[in-house]
């Protein structure tokens, strides 16, 4: 069994996948319960994630029957970095992974390596748009 050294929080994963589902609906509002069903996620948790995306100006919700969430701009103009950072905050690596006072981050090989990985992830997320992020279309 292999383990990835990079972990994405459940909230960030929900944000990325929910945004892709919304993008795939071509501008039709997508209800929270439909997205939650497709993702096998808690509707309450997903609603909180969608609220954060809404506060970041990435999605807008329409209440009531026939309501749901839509993107605020075309999927090709929304980067995965915008979505990720709406949930997790700015990507960066500025302190010791173990938060120990003995480390000099500029001289620690682990800190230097993690800073490079963080920069690489930020670059890739920043150049990849939501239009490129695909999830299977499922009816709900």
Characterise the protein shown here.
There is one protein chain. By secondary structure, this protein is mainly alpha-helical. The protein has one domain (10-132): Winged helix-like DNA-binding domain superfamily/Winged helix DNA-binding domain (Arc Repressor Mutant, subunit A), CATH 1.10.10.10. It has helices at residues 10-24, 32-39, 43-55, 80-88, 109-127, and strands spanning 59-62, 68-71. The protein has a two-stranded antiparallel sheet. Strand 1 and strand 2 (68-71) form a beta hairpin. The protein starts with 9 loop residues before the first helix and ends in a 13-residue tail after the last helix.
What name does CATH use for the topology? Arc Repressor Mutant, subunit A
Q: How many individual β-strands?
A: 2
Tell me the β content. 5-15%
CATH class category label? Mainly Alpha
- Secondary-structure-based class equals mainly alpha
Q: Could you tell me the radius of gyration in angstroms? A: 17 Å
Low-confidence stretches: none
Strand order of the largest sheet: 1-2
Query: What CATH architecture do you see?
Result: Orthogonal Bundle
CATH superfamily: Winged helix-like DNA-binding domain superfamily/Winged helix DNA-binding domain
